[in-house]
Amino acid sequence: MSTRFEALPHRHVLTLPTMPSAVRTARETAEQALTEWGISLRHPTVDPALLILGELVTNSVRHAAVLSPQLTVIYAAGADTLAFAVHDRHPYQPQLHGAATRGGTGGLATVMELALGLGGSAVVRTDADGQGKSVWITLPL
């Protein structure tokens, strides 16, 4: 999928403390945004998307909190696309596609299995200063 996030008409940005409560808040905010944008929570892409979102926020909480006291979630959608990103300021760059091919379970392996299984994509974008990153997920609706 090559949709540019900037081209999607619906966008919402949420910044949270990098702590366990962020997982629930990010998910609840996604559900609210999707409803406001007219995307049914019963759409077959929504539950896997929420699981992916939860895994990514959990990874930031578990692995980035020491260097990144906040994380940011970007939500975006269009008529046929759902996209979101989780950003933190920890310099570690996860290997998403390696997680899918190593046969791992949970975490990034789950993210990749779900994203690719839905016909979506996942990429890591490094901050310009190399001290943070965003994991971007794009899924077809």
From TrEMBL:
PANTHER family: ANTI-SIGMA-F FACTOR RSBW, ANTI-SIGMA-F FACTOR RSBW-RELATED. Residues 50-141 form the Histidine kinase/HSP90-like ATPase domain. The keyword 4Fe-4S does not apply. GO terms for molecular function: ATP binding. InterPro entries: Anti-sigma-factor_SerPK, HATPase_C_sf, HATPase_dom. This is ATP-binding protein. The lineage of its organism: Bacteria, Bacillati, Actinomycetota, Actinomycetes, Kitasatosporales. Keywords: ATP-binding, Kinase, Nucleotide-binding, Serine/threonine-protein kinase, Transferase. SUPFAM superfamilies: ATPase domain of HSP90 chaperone/DNA topoisomerase II/histidine kinase. Pfam families: HATPase_c.
